[in-house]
Amino acid sequence: MTLSGVPGPAQPSDVVVIGAGTIGLAAAWRMAARGMTVAVVDPEPGRGASWAAAGMLAPVSEVHHGEEPLLALALESARRWPAFAAELGAAVGRPIGYRTEGTLVVAVDDGDKAWAEDLYRFQRELGLDVQWLTGRRARQLEPAIAPGVRGAIWAPGDHQVDNRLLVGALLHAAVAAGVVVHRERAVRLECSAGAVSGVGLSGGTTLHATTVVLAAGSWSGQLEGLPPGAAPAVRPVKGQIVRLLPCERAPVLTRTVRGMVQGSSVYVVARHDGSVVVGATVEERGFDTTVTAGAVYELLRDAHRVVPGVTEMVLGEVTVGLRPGTPDNAPIVGRAPVQGVDGLVVATGHYRQGILLTPLTADAVTAVVCGDEPPAEMTPFGPGRFAALEARAGH
């Protein structure tokens, strides 16, 4: 099935984007705005990891030791989010659930407090905008959190967006800009004379283009026709996530709360309608998408320790997403590093920060395709970095 009528399979496009998550759709929208004819291929546009996500835009509270280059990338994309949200909202004529109330990272017991204090010191060393709060002060800021929390980090610049409103808006905006969406599966990269020539679809047709953007998340390495060294080093990392609906007995959460509960991480993300998103597991289970009772129990147990009122809410949905993980937990964005696939651009591997990195990645992909200089923050994350690491390891 094809959305929008022109160009169709018989008429070449400038670009074919494989994957209609937030990364693929945002890149397609941006490229169409630059005057290119763009086709997107995905059997379920806007679903996948983008649909299952919580929508946190949290470069500060998700910072890890040894990932300073990734932090710079995340902070730059976060800086672009307000303008991106405003532009997208104006394009579709409705809000996308972008919220700026900040994020609380709370510690439940003394052991968790020691962890949080270490994180706070690291954040301060990096010059990040954070404040340390006593448990009492944290409850004044967010009354819904548990009375016994031992302390908290307040990150006012860590925001959120309703990921489902986001993917719907991006799909709408892309189609309105002239992007053609093919609800089929891309099965093969077609190449001719050392360059890409199009994409073969599951229905038997071929979309012709001289540039292909591979943004298929965890499935990016599964595309047939990729020569050795061109397949991105991505793997699926399973995440189970719970959505709870509001009720009169449950307190209203006003901002995102992340918690450390006896060494386990949990987050509770508030939505404008009073619902919350609780997540998420991190499981190395391949392409398994089954929901397990144990995962739901552990998520709700830990969320209750942080925000007790969640157990009064209505169980709305349990979703499984497959995050595209990489060997260094960082995205892979740029031209393919091997010969024979000139015109192949990779945009995958965003792991747990795909929503956050959407504006910057879309700008980077558009710059690469148009022959412009991509944002400097993206330079360390090109597709060739793993080959370079392997080469150094071999010496």
How does this structure look, described?
The structure is a single chain. The strands form 3 sheets. Strands 1, 2, 3, 9, 10, 11, 12, 18 and 19 form a 9-stranded mixed beta sheet that branches. An 8-stranded mixed beta sheet has the order 6-7-5-14-15-16-13-17. With 395 residues, the chain is of the alpha+beta class. The chain has 9 helices and 19 strands. It has 2 domains: 189 residues, FAD/NAD(P)-binding domain (3-Layer(bba) Sandwich), CATH 3.50.50; 144 residues, D-Amino Acid Oxidase, Chain A, domain 2 (2-Layer Sandwich).
In short:
The chain is an alpha+beta fold and 395 residues long. The chain has helices at 22-33, 48-52, 68-92, 110-125, 135-141, 163-176, 293-306, 358-370, 385-394, and strands spanning 2-3, 13-18, 38-41, 56-57, 103-107, 131-134, 151-155, 159-160, 180-182, 186-192, 195-201, 206-214, 235-245, 256-261, 264-270, 276-279, 314-325, 332-335, 344-348.
Counting DSSP E segments of at least 2 residues, the number of strands comes to 19
Beta-strand level of the residues, as a percent range?
25-35%
Structural class: alpha+beta
CA-CA gap between termini: 51 Å
CATH topology of the largest domain: FAD/NAD(P)-binding domain
Helix fraction, binned, reads 25-40%
CATH homologous superfamily (4th level) name of the largest domain: FAD/NAD(P)-binding domain
* Total individual domains: 2
Largest sheet: number of strands, sense, barrel closure: 9 strands, mixed
Order of helices and strands: EEHEHEHEHEHEEHEEEEEEEEHEEEHH
**For the CA atoms, what is the radius of gyration?**
21 Å
Q: Which regions have little confidence, pLDDT < 50, spanning 5+ residues? A: 4-8, 390-395
- Averaging pLDDT over every residue, what do you get? 94
The dominant shape is: globular
CATH architecture of the largest domain: 3-Layer(bba) Sandwich
What is the CATH class of the largest domain? Alpha Beta
